[in-house]
Every structure is written in structure tokens, then in C-alpha cells.
Amino acid sequence: MIDLQYHNTPAIECLWGSWVFQRPHSRVYKYNSVKYENIRCVKEVLENPKRIFWGIREHSEGGWCYIGKPTKLYIKENVVIDFPKDKIFAVYIDDRFVVFDWILEYIDDKNKLNPKNWEKRYRSLVWPKSIS
Question: Tens digit of pLDDT for each residue in 110-132?
């Protein structure tokens, strides 16, 4: 699990060639260029997360989900919009700290910075420690 005890922020500096992007993403570009363009959102969320959840039940027993609200979103080739107010952006990181997926998600009815049904999808909220 990520130990946030000695950090003021859980942000990850996200640079091409870093440990976060170890896997080649050329196939993402080849088969889904819009998803590839939204790697910009991945960078923004990892550098400025609003929530971090641990224990991605659907994909694996471990891993993290970083949640954020980037400024822009690619919706189709060469079309960029302001990030929708009723959505959040989720970045999934495996237990080796490698990004393996990123997706636009619906917000929870109770808290606008959480993904819908987050209590059933993740084992725990890591950051912030409480939701006010």
C-alpha cells in the first residue's frame, strides 16, 4: 500500500519514460486514439488527485484508483471539451505502480469527487483519510 504518512500530497510526478508508464501504449493509440489522447488527463489526475482508493476489486485484489477532475477531455479525434462537471476521471495503477487503465466515470450521488458505487468497488479510501 502507498504510505502517505510522510508526504504532504499523494501526487505522483508523471513523466514519459517513468515507472508509471512502463508498458508501451502504442497499441492504445492504434486502436483507440481518443483514449490515447486522454493520457493527458492521466498525468493531470496523478499529479493532482482528489481521491485515492486501494483494493480494486473488479480488476485485482491490490492496486490503486486515483480520482480527479482534469481541465480538458478528448471526446473524439481533434475535439476537446472542458471536463464535464457531472463526471470524474479514474486512473488505475497495479501493485507494481504501472498505469493499466484510465476511464471517465459517473460521480457518486452523495459525494461529487467519488465514483459511483465506490463502497462496493474498492476496499478502502486511502486519501484523503476522511470525506467531509
Answer: 999 999 999 999 988 998 865 55
